[in-house]
């Protein structure tokens, strides 16, 4: 496949992600009022609602109707292939409602995230934040956009002037250690923000609402789509010790600020549970 053909295919994957994320976001937005907890997952604080499941069902249906040879990995329903084969080399990574607790309590910071991987590499993404009226999209090597406009993250600031976003796990023992880490971070930065949605945090970083971000315990569906948006907006997204982003830790920021935050977090064991 030529470079031009590959770019065109990535753009078509992005366009599909945007269309489906738009429809899914509208479904979830309309269903937010009066929503209640349907079940819990890893702990009593890790909730799922009927709209998480309904939104993921819609996303799966739309993606596989257009591309039945693809696979879909979703937070709620696991992995499946439309025709049973999954031989196209494309896997969709889906978080139907990232920030479910925010969603449950009527807050605005939740998102629908859809990423397309080709042979394990995220190449296209859409992140819809419906209550903010924001659609983020990206193509690997093709840049990021917010509501159709080119998105470029602001320049780095020194660590001591950085507004840093983070999040906490659902298990109490993990939260205790994360609080210890936070006690060491707060005196070294401008301030901390805890928004409640990794996807909204990462795309907000790309649009300049915060300067840097770190969090332990994320899954691939939490960072795949917003991570590509952030990366294409000029940010570095990864883990400690040169590792890629993963469940141990995700760090994001302009490269020089990323390095400073990494140096602060590494001796604190931010990628462990203490």
Task: Describe this protein's structure.
- With 274 residues, the protein is of the alpha+beta class.
- The chain folds into two domains: 3-151, 2-Layer Sandwich (Fructose-1,6-Bisphosphatase, Chain A, domain 1), CATH 3.30.540; 159-268, D-Maltodextrin-Binding Protein, domain 2 (3-Layer(aba) Sandwich), CATH 3.40.190.80.
- It has seven helices and 15 strands.
- An eight-stranded mixed beta sheet has the order 4-3-5-6-7-8-9-10, with helices on both faces. It has a five-stranded mixed beta sheet with strand order 12-11-13-15-14, with helices on both faces.
- Helix 1 (3-31) runs antiparallel to helix 2 (50-66) and helix 5 (198-206) packs parallel to helix 6.
CATH H-level name of the largest domain... which superfamily?
Fructose-1,6-Bisphosphatase, subunit A, domain 1
Average pLDDT works out at 92
Strand proportion, as a percent range, falls in 25-35%
Uncertain segments: none
**Number of DSSP-assigned strands:** 15
Counting structural domains, the number is 2
* Separate helix tally: 7
Q: Could you estimate the helical fraction of the residues in percent?
A: 25-40%
Largest sheet: 8 strands, mixed
**What string gives the helices and strands in order?**
HEEHEEEHEEEEEEHEHEHEEH
Tell me, briefly, the overall form.
globular
CATH class of the largest domain: Alpha Beta
Rg: 18 Å
Protein name: Inositol-1-monophosphatase
Organism: Nocardiopsis sinuspersici
Cofactor: Mg(2+)
GO biological process, one term: signal transduction
